[in-house]
Amino acid sequence: MAPHPRPRRRSMLAAALTTALLGPIPLSPIPATAADASDQQGAALCTADSDWTLAARMSQDIRAALSSRAGSVSVSVRDTRTGLVCDLASHRRYDAASVAKVLTMEAALHRAQEWGRGLTAWERRRIRPMITRSDNDATGRLWHDLGHAYLSRFLRRVGTTATTLGSYGYWGLTRTTAADQQRLLGVLTGARGVLKPAARAYGLRQMADVRGDQRWGVPAGMPRGLRAHLKNGWLPRATHGWRVHSVGVFTGGDRTYRIVVLTHGNPTMAYGVRTVERVAQAVHRGLNKGRAIGQALTPQSEISETPDGSAPPQGDYAPPPQGDFTPPEGDFTPPEEEGDAPAA
Predict the structure, then answer these.
(1) Domain 37-315 is classified in which CATH homologous superfamily?
(2) In the structure, what pLDDT confidence band is assigned to residue 190 with cuts at 50, 70 and 90?
(3) Dihedrals φ, ψ of 58, to 5°?
(4) pTM for this model (two decimals)
């Protein structure tokens, strides 16, 4: 907010104090189409219910993390302990790539809850590989089984405002924002009462078990004693280069916080991963002062540069054959035979 024009001395003092706390403020608004992450620095905004110095420092650190980084970057952070809220370009839309799998899992859990049953064996056999190893065949079958109508209804229930489902079964081309991904993560931490505790715990457990070579991204800089529940997406296309996304919930030590970082315009996957991890480091450091780091930046040699396969790499694609993901008949286990699935 610009200082009040009267008196002039008070305005100058307020501007100086703001600059000292938050760094230089851009003279003009950041255009919505800005492509360079370093140009977005001034738009980072954090507030905190109980610690305004934390909010000021976090704003500054996120801007510093994005200094000299190319590509578009959107950030959303929520911390229940301090009330910290950070949003940077959180309404910019991206192809979701494999982070759409969180939505798919949550919708399946919600459907089972609505129908008064636990997950079927068929659903469990798709959900776990879909999340823990980013299995695309399992995702496609579950996406088709849920259907656009149910998935759209679930998005409305969650309160998303800018997420649109990918057409023709291309779930990786779902368009989403950091703000909507934050809302979807909130489903797993109790927001809006969308899922019951057992279903939330089941979903978080799958995300905690993501295999090692896919645990890059928002866990970078996480201190020891916390547990990361995450899902990533990494997809190159003919336009906007690599989409590299990471979303996660962090629990432990009587606190829960959520980090969403979405990016595109990255020249390589490794470049996008480093951008995401620089932001994550800043957030973890700010929220966990004095705690030993439990996860470092991912070495570039460990980043495969192989797409997640959530959509064709080029813009030209044809609708898949109808019924391509139809579940086999008779492959559902009656609810009473299920053991570890969440109860309704």
Answers:
(1) DD-peptidase/beta-lactamase superfamily (3.40.710.10)
(2) confident
(3) -65, -40
(4) 0.82
